[in-house]
Predict the 3D structure of the following.
Amino acid sequence: MKEILEQDLDQDQHTQRILKHFVGDIRGPKDGPTIIAVAGMHGNEPTGVVAIQRVIDILEPLKEEISGRFIGLQGNISALLEDVRFVEEDMNRLWVTSILDKVRRTPFESLKTPDRAELKELLCILDPIVLESPDEEIIYIDIHTFSGTGGMFSITPREERHVELLSQLKIPLVFGVEHALVGTSMEYVEDAGHIGFAFETGSHETKEAEENAYAGLLVLLVAAGLVPANRLEHFGDYYSYLMNKVEGYPHKVQFVYKHIIEEGDDFEMLDGFQNFDPVKKGDWLANDRYGKVFAQNDGFILMPLYQKQGNDGFFIVKAVE
């Protein structure tokens, strides 16, 4: 795809912008999965882009030993440049079939927000791979960070092929949140019949989140069969690092509650909550213009909001077998 776009550089005035989404694209000589890692879907989450670049750097010298293809992409470049979650619209809530259809049909100059232009550019890259290769093994990772603190985790459907692959990373698997977050890019990939999940790696713009993303991607590449573990320098160290980071967290949890922030709520999370902190129904978690916000369920808190942009105040999950 990248090579085709480069060949058409003179024909399409937007090709230059589309090419900027590529962090790297490495195809090995042997058959294997196509792994697509996207970071910076939210512009205040740049650490995943750095982690993807590090993966590209370590894979480049091993190109002839790779089975499959690794594509690294950065998402909302306009928002990344401004260090904001989004410019006018949350791009990771726009991957709804009707909106995608409208974005594909609308000329670049007529799109109503910069975020939709970024989406259209990504679709120029992803559609030919995700939608036109139904029999190809495609694994899509949407890398994110969060405004709170606490352990990393993945958001994934509770399907056997997802659980089998992601269990090798040992990070907590969060089921059901994908149904509460409408319009994410993993939904687009899932609807096309491929494996898609979100990897929440740590707090915004921290070295720890970058290391978590890098270690997780390396373990995923090995688990998927893209590259042998013994060809990745210091793989054992990063595997041990990842295992230590997730020790003590529940392995599988189910979404049970999301606190939705509506316009004018003046929502403010109480200080000090971290991912997987246990909560009881009735615990005081936040305030808004109407008073105190209490937990509606027992469980563990997830993704408490400590930033201005966003309308998901917090989630509550419970451990499952």
